[in-house]
Write a structure and sequence with these properties.
The chain is mainly alpha-helical. It has one domain. The protein is 63% helix and 5% strand. The protein is built from eight helices and six strands. The chain has a two-stranded antiparallel sheet with strand order 1-4. Strands 2-3 form a two-stranded antiparallel sheet. Strands 5-6 form a two-stranded antiparallel ribbon. α3 crosses α8, α4 packs antiparallel against α7 and α5 packs antiparallel against α6. It is globular and about 50 Å long.
């Protein structure tokens, strides 16, 4: 990983990312209402109908990873969490919690009171705040498995990065009138662009692990969007996303998760290399 100068980040990447993310908001009014209450239900699971749905979701995702990854330290995940991932995970979680707070306040999405406990932290259900720490912790276990088992598939995958940038930017231009679509795409574009700037060698590894991660994502995200319940826990404003769902969740959620996870890994590598460089300079 090449460590970019602060000036390069300040004068190039940060303004470009800010423009991509912020431009759709200029002079744009969120269309109120129009929430999609029902998801595309695949099967009804009665035990999920109630205010403990989000808690059940967290327990089902967290307990296996905690047991195998932390208690048994499979694939050296315990060391990876404490030494490399914990600090960047918390930092990125705070950024995405702010995004969640903003979009909830704007009416881009809302939370069904029938499936949450009713206790809020900064206008978010406390279960939602926990999501930003539990789910990346679980998701990065998949990344760690691929990292150990499959030695960096596709390398830096620069060609794939450029192709994704072109395709996603075209989609961004077509969806600038939908706030969630535009923001999800712009966040993904910004993170891929940053991985190019820093010449991150782990992009291919991340893509391989993210593709595998889409399998459990379908189930666990589906639990929150009406795949297994009569109504969705997270209800989206139909005017602010493209209307395409995978199982029961909007395709934009993939960009949300992509940006969140790759941001953690980029920040982790940046901190590791910056500390290493500082240590070398002071020896």
């Amino acid at each position: 990983m090449r460590i970019p100068s602060i000036s390069k980040l300040v004068f190039y990447w940060i303004p470009a990312a800010a423009m991509l993310v912020g431009y759709p908001f200029i002079g744009y009014d969120i269309i109120a209402g129009g929430f999609e209450i029902h998801g595309d239900q695949l099967i009804s699971m009665q035990f999920l109908e109630g205010t403990y749905l989000y808690i059940i979701h967290h327990l089902l995702s967290f307990i296996p990873v905690f047991f195998f990854g932390i208690v048994l330290n499979w694939f050296d995940y315990r060391n990876a969490v404490w030494k490399e991932l914990l600090v960047p995970l918390v930092m990125m979680a705070l950024i995405f919690i702010a995004w969640d707070i903003l979009f909830t306040a704007l009416g881009v999405w809302r939370f069904n009171p029938a499936y949450i406990q009713g206790v809020s932290i900064i206008n978010l259900p406390w279960e939602e705040v926990c999501w930003f720490f539990i789910i990346p912790f679980c998701s990065l276990f998949v990344y760690q498995i691929v990292k150990i088992r499959w030695s960096n598939p596709w390398g830096s995958a620069r060609t794939l990065q450029f192709v994704l940038l072109v395709v996603l930017f075209g989609m961004y231009l077509l969806n600038m009138d939908r706030i969630y679509s535009a923001t999800s795409l712009s966040m993904t574009i910004s993170m891929i662009g940053l991985s190019l700037i820093v010449n991150w060698k782990g992009f291919g590894l991340f893509i391989a692990s993210f593709l595998l991660l889409l399998i459990p994502m379908g189930l666990f995200n589906g639990m929150l969007t009406g795949l297994l319940t009569k109504e969705a826990l997270v209800q989206y404003n139909s005017a602010e996303f493209g209307g395409i769902r995978i199982l029961s969740f909007p395709i934009e959620d993939i960009g949300f998760g992509f940006g969140f996870l790759i941001g953690i890994l980029l920040l982790s590598d940046f901190i590791k290399h910056r500390l290493s460089a500082d240590y070398t300079l002071t020896k």
